[in-house]
């Protein structure tokens, strides 16, 4: 079997740690893109410009396997790609890391503990579920807002306060902390004016759902706050996906 040679394209701490983890497993890490490279590891998610990406791709063989996040791009047409952001296991584990990071970010701005703290989480996706569970264990008074009635029923069944995400304006003043996990516009600046003056607002979604000059942009947290955890997850996922593909 041909030796696998990875080239990690990016300078993020998480990607560097992923490369170190792969090297520990006996995988050779190339210092530059070349014809010998068998796998190209891009950031997760990959936000490189077309010019940046094309410059990396040019010296690589057409047979190279490309791994990363958000790989549905014209520059990658014709290449074999494995998108980590299409892998449910990666997404679930990444959501758990994101939840821990979000709590850390919030705690750095709080003047009290989580016990009995009224918290609103917007969205009942992976991150919302992980965040709700974590905050509840820490003693917070957790409300979770969702669109679907079936989701709100499950939220109530799990002993959170369920709110209708389309009808939040009049209740926003209850909360000391609001986390958004929904990647679409949820609350306008006018609606956000109903929040209490010292409300901590944290944006976690890839596409912002809440607006305001005082909103903390906490997108991409795992790589920023917990690069070791993020890099190790990337490495584990890469090895698993490659083994499945090659098997």
Question: Any key phrases for this structure?
Answer:
247 residues; alpha/beta; Rossmann fold; 2 domains; 8 helices; 17% strand; elongated
Any overview of this molecule?
It is a single chain. With 247 residues, the protein is α/β, with parallel strands linked by helices. It is built from 8 helices and 11 strands. The strands form 2 sheets. A 6-stranded parallel beta sheet has the order 8-7-6-9-10-11, with helices on one face. Helix 5 (149-157) links the parallel strand 7 and strand 8 (161-164). The chain is elongated.
Q: How many strands, which pairing sense, and closed or not: the largest β-sheet?
A: 6 strands, parallel
Question: Helix and strand string, N-terminal first?
Answer: EHEEHEEHEHEHEEHEEHH
* Terminal residue distance: 12 Å
**Overall residue-averaged pLDDT value:** 94
Number of helices, counting only DSSP H or I runs of 4 residues or more: 8
- Determine the structural class based on helices, strands and strand pairing: alpha/beta
> What are the low-pLDDT stretches, counting only 5+ consecutive residues below 50?
none
